[in-house]
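Blinded run. Sample ID left blank on purpose so nobody reads anything into the name before looking at the predicted structure. Input follows.
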Amino acid sequence: MIVLIASQKGGCGKSTTAANLCALLAQRGEDVVLVDADRQCTAANWALDRTERTDLPKVHCVQKYENIHSTLLDLAQRYGFVVADTGGRDSREMRTGMLAADILIVPLRASQPDLDTLPKMQEVITQAKDLNPKLHVCALLNIAPTNPLVHEVEEAQDYLSDYPKITLLNTVIRDRKIYRDCMSVGSGVVEEDNDKAKAEIETLVQEIGL
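Blinded prediction complete.
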């Protein structure tokens, strides 16, 4: 299965989402490879740090830019799960990745600048589905406020109801320090001592059917 993490907005947690999906799948004993298609190399750096952790299951990593379509399809023949992370813009990596992916996860902050990317994103998704009708598209509200008095999540959920081609996931990933800590040491939150973050990633994986 090929899972693509993509968005036209930077800073919405794409690399963190990709890394945590890989960590959970590896913990389950699945054969998983992480494809870093973002020249910032955040996901690849996480995977490199992970190679130094002998206490954690291995996550293979491949860096590939420009047209990633054939690379994703080839890796899917050799691994049970391929998780690809692309940059925060309308890129060749994002568009070619959509043509190979089974699942597209679009992380979004519950903020207007992120939500403003949806009209263009839906247009790109429509074009991709013309060529890849099996593509299942999900929006993930990510880095959401933990303060229950802040209603940005509810407002974003209401906004997303106007985009029927993008399925809004029930899972909400909150803004927790543990996610940032894990990215610096090559681990996933499911491998650390934070039950709330662990439950968020486990729920995400279950909801998208991995």
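Unblinding after everyone has recorded impressions. Strands lie at 2-7, 32-37, 60-63, 81-88, 103-108, 136-144, 167-174.
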